Amino acid sequence: MKIFNSLEEVNGIQPTVVALGNFDGVHKGHQQIIERTVRSAQDMGLKSAVFTFSNHTRTLLKNLPAVKNILYAEEKAKIIETMGIDYMFNIPFTNDILTMSPEDFIKDILVDKFKIREAYCGFNYSFGYKAKGTPEVLMHEGLKHGFGIHVQEPYKIDNIIVSSTYIRNLIAEGDMERCMKFMGRMYSIGGEVVVGNKLGRTIGFPTSNIMIDETMATPPNGVYITYCTYNGVKYPSVTNVGVKPTVGIYNKNIETHIFNFDRELYGKQIRVEFIKRTREERKFSGIEELSKQIESDCIMAKAYHREKGSL
């Protein structure tokens, strides 16, 4: 997959079938749009493409709160690439684009730059100045410029429309199982392992700690059954998200105990995939009570991993 990080880079490409949208979670609804785009491009002998913005459109709208990311940029690109897309137009959302009329957006970007022949989008896709561009506008302009438009109806699971907003709410509630159902993959957080307070090592449960990325949607404090991926290998693990109230005052972080693993990971990159929340974080009477609870947490997590055949 070739990634274009600016409109200026888009030159000499072949005609395209383009999936339009933020694709900020590449959830199951997004996946259906992308899959239809790839199939259509193959059938027509064209290149498949995804057009998205490298920053969320709300970043330029000061009257709206910032939106937490569900995926890291490189993770988003990797998922889209595995779906068979040829081109990814990963363009910065600028004031020029913000103030562009829907008609100019279509003519200057979709037609002239992307050589669009077919487009796929969701039922609520909007674009152009004051979001006046709609699927209906795309259909009207498509007739004028000679491209087709296919609009996906709401994609539902359990009679609930799959959306990035709903998935963010699931993450905020710690409902990792339902999050996986709507995303089609486990929610994960990655980062560099940093030095913690080393308490876990002294009580027999060494942990790898990563700091919370404030730009990302994060689950609530608590204990989770997890997988931890290091150097391309996935290990069964148990993870605490929180501030460690029993032992002091700390910023919220993620500390993972990896089963049957004794390597030092300071300075290394890991990724933690969240399977299930088992309890809330709470303050214990002391280290002894905390240690007993951690042992209980590990027993529960190991039982789960054994049942799944990963331990």
UniProtKB/TrEMBL annotation:
Matches recorded under Pfam families: FAD_syn (PF06574), Flavokinase (PF01687)
Residues in Riboflavin kinase domain copies: 182-306
Pathway of action: Cofactor biosynthesis; FAD biosynthesis; FAD from FMN: step 1/1; Cofactor biosynthesis; FMN biosynthesis; FMN from riboflavin (ATP route): step 1/1
Cited InterPro entries: FAD_synthase, Riboflavin_kinase, Riboflavin_kinase_bac, Riboflavin_kinase_bac/euk, Riboflavin_kinase_dom_sf, Rossmann-like_a/b/a_fold
Family matches, as Gene3D superfamilies: HUPs, Riboflavin kinase-like
Family according to the record: Belongs to the ribF family.
Annotated CDD domains: FAD_synthetase_N
Enzyme class: transferase
Keyword Secreted listed: no
A GO BP entry: FMN biosynthetic process
Reaction catalysed by this enzyme: FMN + ATP + H(+) = FAD + diphosphate; riboflavin + ATP = FMN + ADP + H(+)
EC number of this enzyme: 2.7.1.26, 2.7.7.2
Name listed for the protein in its UniProt record: Riboflavin biosynthesis protein
Naturally occurring in which organism (per UniProt): Lentihominibacter hominis
Keywords: ATP-binding, FAD, Flavoprotein, FMN, Kinase, Multifunctional enzyme, Nucleotide-binding, Nucleotidyltransferase, Transferase
Recorded superkingdom: Bacteria
One term of GO molecular function: riboflavin kinase activity
